[in-house]
Amino acid sequence: MAEVAAQQPIVVPDPSDTVAARIIRIAGKLPVNLFLAAIGLVWLVPTIGLFLSSLLAPNDFNSKGWWQIISKPSVATWANYSNLWNSTDIPHSLVTTAEIAIGGTVFPILVAALAGYAFAWLEFPGRDWLFVVVIGLLVVPLQMALIPMFSLYNKLGIFDTVISLVLFHTAFGLPFAIFLLRNFFIGIPKDILESARIDGASEVRIFSRLILPLGLPAIASLAIFQFLWTWNDLLVALTFARNTQPVTVAIYTNLRQFGSNIDIIAPASFLSLVIPLAVFFAFQRYFVQGLLAGSVK
Amino acid sequence: MTVGPPAREVPSSDEGGGWRSWGVTAIFLVPAAVFLIVWIVYPTVYTIIRSFFGRDGFNNFVGIDNFKAIFTTSVLTTAIKNNAIWLGVVPALVTAIGLIFAVLTERIRWSVAFKTAVFMPMAISLFATGVIWRLMDQKDPNKGTLNAVIGVVHDAFSPPGPLSNAAPSTPSIVGSPQTGLVLKTPIAPGKVVRLGLTAIPPEDVPSGAKQAVQPPPKPGEIDGVVWRDFKPGGGVPGKVEKGELALPNVTVNLRDSSGKTVQSATTDDKGDFAFKDVKGSGYKVAIGADTFRQPFAGVDWLGSQLITPSIIIAYIWVWAGFAMVVIAAGLAAIPRETLEAARTDGGSEWQVFRRVTVPLLAPVLSVVFITMLINVLKVFDIVLSVAPGSTQTDANVIALAMWRTSFGGVNDFGLGSAIAVFLFVLVIPVLALNVRRFRREV
Q: pLDDT, tens digit, for every residue of A22-76?
């Protein structure tokens, strides 16, 4: 603090703050600005390239890349999208994806919030030991469950259904969700809970009226994670679904003829990433918070 | 009770009797327990046991044969080798790039826009990312963005020759388009040379080409003609005939007996060139390799050699943003005074970065690094979507091998289980790290 105060007088009559000095200062920052601008461009171009490619008729695509649109915008057409909409099962698969993603977000959060509360504020024997087990489950690769669940789903007759995918995502989303929510709930001031208990509120009531509203920031970031994770999944759906195709699997089946199916692949891929991107831009803050709270998954 | 937070004592609400309190706890815990046991614990045990049985099922105990197969089957050893490359390259590179971006964004005013651009791919599925980069990686420079950019740079430094397709029309010209074409017999002043070329498609003939004309000999000069020694319906090779076009703008070199180029001339629209004031003899006339240089054909990013690096590039495109954001948050937590003090003490920017910033960031950097280790071990979708069917085996990784062995046609649940167990064993050290970190934090 003393240092800051000592520096203050220098600021006012600063003789170096002439126009020339300012130019030198800006010029000194020019390389960094240019470098980062180039990097930023490199990071944006691939996605833009996919979008512009999706606007090219197959013939145009096969003659030249997406950048032909920049010099000749008239080649762009929505025809691929209208074909996609009218004569493929991509729209249906997008609905399937949405069902999986919504179910796969709501269920794990509900279940994890209950468990997270128990781990944070209920007293039961072996609690901390059990929580360590949950953290341990965090790194079990889901490959460990593919073969047994494949057999079990077949036996139960729920193979190739949306619900089977949702349940699988729920289970594998739980360890991270419990971990995150427990750590968040523990930060809720003890006094609030104490006074509610003294007032005679039941644990269920405390959970629904106090914990859930107070835990909303953590729940929001968790929801975004889980939504993106389930929306973007390929592995689980590829294993447990045949006709119940989410959009990733639907695109995958077209991938074999990359060149000739590009009029399906490019627009379908773009549609599949529009919603996650919208979610990302709308809730970026929660996304980053969640990332920082538990970059362990 | 090793990890219990000591300061937090919740009064047990035992008043309604032990059973009621147990019932409440059960309401909160049972749903999670059911999911974790049925979908994670039970399958884990099942898969471990299954890995000791053969393809046919539990009546076919094979001991550790499946695990031996992991290290002896070439498809699987390729997958392990590739995953080793991923492990060696990706976590370090992602952490380094994230650190560089995080430090540099502190110096610009538009850091939010930059971070958003770099972070955005995190929202895109790895599968769609694969599709995006497969488009970028197309081999034809007319279609693939990466090769188009490289092609522009490449052609600026070594432009394609005017005749990228051509071959000598008679055996009197030797050499190849790669090394340049040379007239076999030595030449003295006063002679005329004919350099006939064939195999030139009509669209390659330079515009403005006229009927080829053989120049008359002149004393003290070596004259000659370069032309397309071909006319529809035949013709005599090595002879300039009516209907055969000149090849203008071709650079012709005159080399002395030691092979040194002493003069260069360019053909005119009749295909003619002349070397003036030539003394002595034993000269050779040649068309340099530049004339025949091929245009940039494109790097085969999706071919068997480069497929893994190509997928890694796409993967880094996704995860650099994650590293940057986490490290930037760590950077923001470093007290400004610490850095200022180091600068006032005379440290250069680099020294401050190296001696102060990086050590203070070490915990954050290790979180990013460890997260990436786990992610890389499980890499799957992006390989499936970047690599075309033809090079998927070259690009194979452990998680993909597990899926292909179990569900992708081979359908060997025994070997598939063994690969899954192998993957699990690889992540166990990370599990240990997580548990240790948790114990320290609480």
A: 787 777 788 899 999 999 999 999 999 999 999 988 888 888 888 888 888 888 8
Dihedral sign for Cα atoms in the order A181, A187, A190, A195 = negative
Shortest alpha-carbon distance between residue A262 and chain B (Å): 9
Can you give the residue ranges of every domain in chain A? 15-77, 84-293
Instruction: Among 3.10.450.350, 3.20.20.140, 3.40.50.2030, 1.10.3720.10, name the CATH number for the domain at A84-293.
Output: 1.10.3720.10
Contact B403 A235 (CB under 8 A): yes
Residue A271: closest C-alpha in chain B: B128
C-alpha B303/C-alpha B298 separation (Å) is 11
B23 plus B77 within the same structural domain: no
Q: In DSSP terms, which residues pair with B193 in a beta bridge?
A: B224
Question: Do B369 and B399 belong together in one domain?
Answer: yes
Tell the burial category of A233 from Cβ atoms under 10 Å away from its Cβ (0-12, 13-18, 19+): buried
d(CA A247, CA A255): 12
- Whether B272 and B305 map to the same domain: the answer is no
ipTM of this predicted structure: 0.86
Give me the domain span that covers residue B27.
17-46
Q: Best residue in A147, A154, A205 to probe B by mutation, most B CBs within 10 Å?
A: A147
Q: Which of A88-97, A203-212, A255-264, B413-422 shows the lowest mean pLDDT across its residues?
A: A255-264
As a residue count, chain A comes to 297
pLDDT recorded at residue B79: 95
What does the alpha-carbon distance between residue B191 and residue B186 come to, in Å, rounded to a whole number? 11
Per-residue model confidence as pLDDT tens digits over B382-412:
999 999 988 889 999 999 999 999 998 778 9
Q: According to the model, what pLDDT value does residue A13 have?
A: 47
